[in-house]
């Protein structure tokens, strides 16, 4: 996987964590790196640069990672709402990961960081892209993790079937 032709945005309010991520990315061959210390700066960087991949922390102030990703996906001023996003956080509970997915994150990388974990997430967002979905309540990559099974019948869900009518006597 070659990263030298991708422009990567790293958004993290912790300078040391941001430096660690950028050093890991450079070691993997990514040389076009843009840094931001919060969600506001991240959105400004998205407008100034043609970003190909975003790595963002979850816990930041004044704009956290969830709000940043939601704005990135839904704002009318967003320049690239379909950009792949990897969220990085030490808060890796199932609830947090589900909330990240629901905010529009492509992949989640738990801290402490490892090179193999970073490579795996980068590979997933670059080689196994998911279709982008836009609904009234969600914008982001298709959230389904399993390959949909082929369906040949007229109704996909039980709620799609006509309901039996009550007979009045």
Automatic annotation (TrEMBL):
Taxonomic lineage from the root: Bacteria, Pseudomonadati, Pseudomonadota, Alphaproteobacteria, Caulobacterales
PTM sites of type 4-aspartylphosphate: 57
Biased composition regions of type Basic and acidic residues, renumbered to the chain: 157-169
Organism: Phenylobacterium koreense
Response regulatory domain: residues covered: 7-126
SUPFAM superfamilies linked: CheY-like (SSF52172)
CDD domains per the UniProt record, alphabetical: REC_hyHK_CKI1_RcsC-like (cd17546)
InterPro entries: Bact_response_regulator, CheY-like_superfamily, Sig_transdc_resp-reg_receiver
Protein name according to UniProt: CheY-like chemotaxis protein
SMART domains, alphabetized: REC (SM00448)
Keyword field: Phosphoprotein
PROSITE patterns, sorted: RESPONSE_REGULATORY
Residue segments, region Disordered: 130-169
């Amino acid at each position: 996987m070659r990263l030298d032709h991708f422009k990567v945005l790293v958004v993290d309010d912790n300078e040391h964590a941001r430096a660690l991520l950028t050093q890991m990315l450079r070691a993997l061959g990514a040389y076009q790196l843009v840094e931001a210390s919060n969600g506001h700066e991240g959105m400004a960087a998205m407008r100034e640069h043609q970003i190909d991949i975003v790595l963002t922390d979850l816990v930041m102030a004044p704009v956290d990672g969830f709000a940043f990703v939601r704005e990135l996906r839904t704002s009318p001023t967003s320049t690239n709402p379909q950009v792949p996003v990897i969220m990085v956080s030490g808060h890796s509970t199932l609830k947090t990961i589900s909330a990240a997915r629901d905010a529009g994150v492509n992949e989640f990388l738990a801290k402490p960081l490892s090179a193999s974990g970073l490579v795996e997430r980068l590979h997933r967002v670059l080689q196994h892209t998911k279709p982008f979905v836009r609904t009234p309540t969600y914008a982001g990559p298709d959230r389904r993790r399993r390959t949909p099974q082929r369906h040949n019948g007229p109704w996909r869900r039980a709620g799609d079937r006509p309901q039996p009518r009550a007979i009045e006597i």
